[in-house]
Write a structure and sequence with these properties.
- The complex is a heterodimer of chains A (223) and B (256).
- With 223 residues, chain A is mainly α.
- Chain A contains 10 helices and no strands.
- In chain B, the strands form 2 sheets. Chain B has a 6-stranded mixed beta sheet with strand order 7-8-9-3-10-11, with helices on both faces. A 5-stranded antiparallel beta sheet of chain B has the order 2-1-4-5-6, with helices on one face.
- Chain B starts with a strand and ends with a helix.
- Chain B is an alpha/beta fold and 256 residues long.
- The chains are: A mainly alpha (223), B alpha/beta (256).
- At the A-B interface, α6 and α7 of A face β7 of B.
């Protein structure tokens, strides 16, 4: 059982896609979570449902939506290409977008619960001590919600690592360019290459178990 | 320091899926430095303190502190909590659990995002020393006893150099022995720093020790304002306090 140069490259690409996807999911998820935990507005519940949708929709459906939006003849595709030179279909950037959207609800949900758990008194105390709202957020709310956010982030990373359906629809399965580990496993099995399949399955399992163990640590009650 | 409050507000709360309404109309004024608000639970004492601190906004009325207008619905004035310079000691102290005693006490002194300056650090340590908790500077709030937590909360409020400190039932979570001691400490601290305080309680011992002016609440309104210190100046203390306590007891009897 040995990892070839191509396998390492696949692992590198998988980690790159998953890390970037997690980063975007984190930035978007945490800011939206804060808005939802903090403000009441019309359409809040509907918007919450829409934002949670990527967690329950079949990934292929999600991928189809993305194609409709970002494809060559999609609603946003030509505009993105013209103005930013970004092409999402059949590129690793497309894989990042697909994985980010699939992973987003995991960050959003846990960050929102974490922000809602922060005692109002803490934030009020900070205000009476002269803190601006930005100070209240970075010095009190965010640190107190950190455990939940980190736990959500690790779950999102694990989810992005294993993402298959939506990524396949958007980015395709091009070895060396958009092929991630989960797709390489599919290819190996289809080609009857059991040794390679075993190696890749073991590799992806080790990475995911590590992440889940870490998230378990962060989710456990405070010491 | 003259504190003048005349506010009306209505709070809507959800209790077991039933919408409840609580309305408060509070009106009192005092120039004394030690004020006690006394009354049964749910009579609007905490809400009044929160309104003074700027944590909730009344619908109508005004709040004036010294020369400053903190809130005036007619003039459209409502200062945000952070500019009111009002210390607030929460019932559960609301110490930041992720910060050490030193960082908690120095919260107001830190020019975030810069770290605490050396001078600020010294000032904080000096203040912690006054409260006898300097040895705990690097501990977390979860490692402190109830009395120590309250000392840190008071030190934190004082370091912001407030014009008044509001205390919401500060001794209610303590056993009787500690309660007596912390009350004495508070009296001493108030005298030492000359900082005006407003304290909420339903303990008559707090009334006796700290009520230069006593405001008695009942059913979301002020039932009576007693200038206890003035009364003691004009007649025998031994006669004044029993009468004051009788007034206090009255609101509880009426509630039953």
């Amino acid at each position: 059982m040995e990892l070839t140069a191509a396998d390492w490259q696949t692992l590198r690409l998988t980690l790159k896609v998953a890390s970037l996807a997690t980063l975007y999911a984190l930035l978007l998820g945490v800011s939206l979570a804060w808005v939802f935990a903090r403000f009441r507005f019309i359409g809040r519940d509907v918007l919450d449902a829409v934002l949670t949708l990527p967690m329950v929709l079949p990934p292929t459906v999600l991928g189809y939506y993305l194609l409709v939006l970002f494809g060559q003849r999609g609603a946003l595709g030509p505009w993105l290409e013209e103005n930013f030179g970004i092409q999402l279909v059949f590129t690793w950037q497309g894989a990042v977008v697909a994985a980010a959207i699939v992973a987003f609800p995991l960050v959003f949900k846990s960050a929102r619960a974490a922000f809602e758990d922060v005692e109002k008194n803490m934030e009020q105390a900070a205000r009476t001590l002269g803190s601006r709202e930005i100070g209240v957020f970075f010095r009190v709310s965010l640190p107190l919600a950190m455990r939940g956010i980190v736990a959500g982030m690790l779950l999102a990373f694990a989810r992005a690592m294993g993402e298959f359906g939506a990524t396949l629809m958007v980015a395709g399965n091009l070895p060396g360019r958009t092929q991630t580990l989960s797709m390489a496993v599919y290819d190996a099995v289809m080609a009857g290459d059991d040794v390679r399949a075993n190696t890749l399955v073991l590799l992806i399992s080790v990475v995911c178990v590590t992440i889940l163990a870490l998230s378990g640590y962060f989710l456990s009650p405070k010491r | 320091m003259r504190l003048s409050v005349d506010i009306e507000l209505t709070l809507k709360t959800q209790q077991r899926r039933k919408a409840r309404e609580f309305s408060l109309h509070a009106r009192f004024e005092s120039a004394e430095n030690r004020m006690v608000i006394f009354g049964p639970s749910g009579s609007g004492k905490s809400v009044t303190l929160q309104a003074i601190a700027g944590l909730i906004q009344p619908t109508r009325g005004h709040i004036r502190l010294g020369e400053r207008t903190l809130f005036d619905s007619a003039a459209g004035i409502s200062l945000p909590a952070r500019t009111r310079r009002i210390g607030y000691v929460f019932q559960d102290y609301a110490l930041f659990p992720h910060l050490t005693v030193l960082q908690n006490a120095g919260y107001a002194l830190r020019q975030w995002p810069r770290p605490l300056s050396r001078e600020a650090r010294e000032r904080i340590l000096h203040m912690l020393d006054v409260f006898g908790v300097a040895a705990l500077a690097n501990n977390l709030p979860s490692e402190l006893s109830g009395g120590q937590r309250q000392r840190v909360a008071l030190a934190r409020a004082l370091l912001h150099e407030p014009e008044v400190i509001l205390l919401d039932e500060p001794f209610s979570a303590m056993d009787l022995l500690l309660r007596d001691r912390m009350r004495e400490e508070l009296v001493a601290i108030q005298a030492r720093f000359k900082v005006p305080i407003v304290l909420i309680t339903h303990d008559l011992k707090d009334v006796r020790a700290l009520a230069d002016t006593l405001v008695i609440y009942q059913y979301g309104a002020v039932a009576k304002v007693l200038p206890c210190r003035d009364m003691c100046r004009h007649e025998d203390e031994a006669l004044v306090w029993p009468r004051v306590f009788e007034e206090c007891g009255g609101v509880f009897n009426a509630a039953i």
